[in-house]
Write a structure and sequence with these properties.
- It is a single chain.
- The chain is built from no helices and 16 strands.
- With 207 residues, it is an all-beta fold.
- The protein has a single domain, classed as Jelly Rolls, CATH 2.60.120.
- Strands 3, 4, 6, 8, 11, 12, 13, 14 and 16 form a 9-stranded antiparallel β-sheet that branches. Strands 5, 7, 9, 10 and 15 form a 5-stranded antiparallel β-sheet that branches.
Length: 207
């Protein structure tokens, strides 16, 4: 199948019919009811795009993906060995310097709880977060590995601005690829007095 403008669908919109196929997908053959194709796919649209700004001030762990178009739920049997899920988040922090913990989750399991900005000095800054996890083994006893980095903007006003915070130990989880899987990214402040605001986020599946 050739990729044309007509083939590119909106986030979360079906391209082929199928009970378990609810994200946009372009491939060389239509999948069966479990999303299995005769050949490898050529292109996958974002399955979720944030359309509302979200803000977090308190110390309770909270999702920062907001609400949007599409779905944060992957259909069963979609993940196969080599399938990757990429998440991009844009937002900004208020001026008070404080540490926070970023978590990437799938099927309720946590890949990592990464402490961010610990001991950092910064003013109000924009940020960009990249997260990704890849299925290494499919099936009821499947496995996946995930990692991230967070880039903080800079106006040259503080020593820790303009740096990249990342995981030193990518996290591995055991999961069933035969079950529906929910994706989430959460943030938890170490204390009160600061705010993280996310304005844009996008989740896409690459096979």
């Amino acid at each position: 199948m050739a990729i044309t403008h007509a083939t590119i669908k909106a986030p979360g919109q079906r391209l082929f019919a199928g009970a378990d196929w609810n994200i946009a997908h372009v491939g060389t053959a239509a999948p069966d009811t479990h999303g299995n194709e005769a050949h490898s796919p050529l292109f996958v649209c974002p399955c979720y795009v944030q359309t509302s700004t979200t803000s977090l001030t308190g110390t309770t762990e909270t999702s920062i993906l907001g609400t949007g178009v599409g779905s944060l739920q992957l259909p069963k049997n979609l993940l196969k060995a080599g399938t990757s899920v990429k998440i991009k988040i844009f937002g900004y922090l208020t001026a008070a310097a404080m540490a926070g913990t970023l978590r990437l989750k799938f099927q309720g399991q946590t890949f990592f709880a990464q402490l961010i900005l610990s001991g950092a000095t910064y003013t109000a800054q924009g940020f960009e977060i990249d997260l990704m996890f890849t299925c290494r083994k499919a099936g009821a006893a499947g496995t996946a590995i995930g990692s991230m980095n967070m880039k903080l903007g800079s106006d040259l006003g503080a020593a820790n601005e303009g740096v990249v915070f990342g995981t030193t130990s990518p996290g591995t989880i055991s999961n069933s690829t035969t079950a529906v899987g929910n994706i989430d990214v959460t943030w938890q402040w170490a204390g009160t007095g600061n705010t993280i605001i996310t304005i844009l986020s996008e989740v896409e599946v690459i096979n």
